[in-house]
């Protein structure tokens, strides 16, 4: 393994969905991949598949000390990180704000916001030392367009979009690019998690519709990561072919 010959991408949430597809694509392209997530067994399986260019690290992104420790203890051949893909995240529930579970709200904030800033803050000094890097944050169309039940999930993704712009403002001139990639409806384990393991309800979300595939997002991440340094892609929004916006809801008096 040689980080001079192979660029390195650090991917949060690589046990499934977008993160897993991204790890596979970058590995195919000859990159080193640092693959992370809570499910250690899945990481080990993926690492076996990817071979010696991958490093599995199991930790909970919402655990501030665990994130710091994992990044501080990166082996020397994996600590020149060219791309940080802040992908780990989740939606929990689809209840209205007056009925939603506060523990779900906490977990979304802890993962989608706090976890993302912990990873970013710990990786940035490594990028500054190297004089180059790219932070690619996975937001969502839910951060731009409201829908019933999107309440805190959409709020966390609006944070991702604005945090990305503010990161860019801090990092311009330091060789570090920042991109917010904001997908719409994609079939991953996202809805299984949102509906707390109810696979039937989750599969209904994608039934009879053309949704985004994890590989579409992986390809976009690869494209963004390989643009020349004279440009910065600030933001990309991708919707599914069969997805568009809601009309305004007008409530009539009885
Ligand atoms: P998946 O559920 O398939 O993947 C989510 C990943 O996040 C898993 O690898 C999971 O790993 C990881 N993760 C969740 N919580 C934690 C945690 N506390 N610590 C570490 N890792 C964690 O969903 P997607 O691939 O769809 O989601 C990836 C990102 O894309 C998310 O940020 C999501 O909000 C966003 N997104 C998804 C869309 C969709 O329609 N699918 C559309 C727009 C954005 P593990 O469980 O092993 O910890
Ligand atoms: C996931 C997309 O529309 O289900 O971020 O909220 S959506």
Verbal overview:
With 254 residues, this protein is an alpha/beta fold. It has a single domain, classed as NAD(P)-binding Rossmann-like Domain (Rossmann fold, 3-Layer(aba) Sandwich), CATH 3.40.50.720. Helix content is 42%, strand content 15%. It has eight helices and seven strands, in the order E-H-E-H-E-H-E-H-E-H-E-H-H-H-E. Strands 3-2-1-4-5-6-7 form a seven-stranded parallel beta sheet, sandwiched between helices. The protein is globular and about 70 Å long. The relative contact order is 0.14. The mean pLDDT is 97. It binds NADPH dihydro-nicotinamide-adenine-dinucleotide phosphate (NDP) and 2-hydroxyethylsulfonic acid. NADPH dihydro-nicotinamide-adenine-dinucleotide phosphate binds next to helix 1, helix 4 and helix 6.
Question: Could you provide a short overview of the structure?
Answer:
42% of the residues lie in helices and 15% in strands. It has 254 residues and is of the alpha/beta class. The protein has one domain: NAD(P)-binding Rossmann-like Domain (Rossmann fold).
């Amino acid at each position: 393994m040689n980080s001079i010959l192979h660029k390195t991408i650090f991917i949060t949430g690589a046990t499934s969905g977008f993160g897993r597809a991204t790890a596979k694509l970058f590995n195919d392209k000859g990159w080193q991949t640092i693959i992370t997530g809570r499910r250690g067994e899945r990481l080990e399986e993926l690492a076996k598949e990817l071979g010696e260019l991958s490093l599995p690290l199991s930790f909970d992104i919402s655990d501030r000390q665990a994130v710091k420790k994992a990044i501080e203890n990166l082996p020397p051949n994996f600590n020149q990180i060219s791309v940080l893909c802040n992908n780990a995240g989740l939606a929990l529930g689809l209840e209205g704000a007056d009925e939603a579970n506060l523990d779900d709200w906490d977990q979304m904030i802890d993962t989608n916001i706090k976890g993302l800033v912990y990873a970013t803050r710990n990786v940035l000094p490594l990028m500054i030392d190297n004089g180059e890097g790219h932070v690619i944050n996975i937001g969502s169309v839910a951060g731009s367009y409201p829908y019933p039940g999107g309440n805190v999930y959409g709020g966390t993704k609006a944070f991702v979009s604005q945090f990305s712009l503010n990161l860019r403002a801090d990092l311009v001139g330091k060789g570090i690019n920042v991109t917010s990639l904001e997908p719409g409806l994609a079939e991953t384990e996202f809805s299984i998690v949102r509906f707390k393991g109810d696979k039937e309800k989750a599969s209904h979300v994608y039934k009879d519709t053309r949704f985004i595939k994890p590989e579409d997002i992986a390809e976009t991440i690869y494209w963004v990561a390989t643009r020349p340094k004279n440009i910065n892609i600030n933001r990309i929004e991708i919707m599914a072919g069969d997805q568009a916006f809601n009309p305004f809801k007008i409530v009539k008096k009885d």
